[in-house]
Amino acid sequence: MTEKEKMLAGELYQARDPELVAARLKVRKLVKSLNDSDPEDIEFRISLIRKIFGKAGKNFWVEPPFYCDYGSNIEVGDDVFFNFNCVVLDVVKVTLGDRVLVAPNVQFYPATHPLDPVVRGKMWEYGKPISIGNDVWIGGSAVICPGVTIGDRTVIAAGAVVTKSFPADVVIGGNPAKVIKNLK
């Protein structure tokens, strides 16, 4: 397997692989163009969003600045909004359903490293996919950790550190995040 194939499969891989370095460089140039773009040039911003993201539904919007590793591993549904200064380390799939609201400074971290310091010291890493359901609201400065799945209609409170998966129809918050309230 290539390092890219290992990465996408969630296996240990070397991020310094030339193919992966080139892919990150390519998207970073697109992201820089988005981040530096004129806020009134809506069509240009939309064209960049379509080039950066693997799948971008209708009425998808990103407020710059925005940062990601590859972009191609991010899939978002319809009517999704990313507010200022979001980060997605998309070494594996990061999927957001329809009508997801992402507040400023939200961080999606599917990328992770081995706990063994010898293996980690040799610069190995891997990822665990993140999946966000439909009609989810993610509050400002929330952190979504590797392998998390969030059910439909869930609200993630500002500042939450989400280290595990949660079902639909709950409000979660805290560090680590826990259920604060059931919505049904």
UniProtKB/TrEMBL annotation:
Protein name: Maltose O-acetyltransferase
Alphabetical list of Pfam families matching this protein: Hexapep (PF00132), Mac (PF12464)
Family statement: Belongs to the transferase hexapeptide repeat family.
Organism the protein comes from: Algoriphagus yeomjeoni
InterPro entries hit by this protein: Hexapep (IPR001451), Hexapeptide_acetyltransf (IPR051159), Mac_dom (IPR024688), Trimer_LpxA-like_sf (IPR011004)
Record flagged with keyword Magnesium: no
Alphabetically ordered keywords of this record: Transferase
GO molecular function per UniProt: O-acetyltransferase activity
Every Maltose/galactoside acetyltransferase domain range: 4-58
Keyword Glycoprotein included in the entry's annotation: no
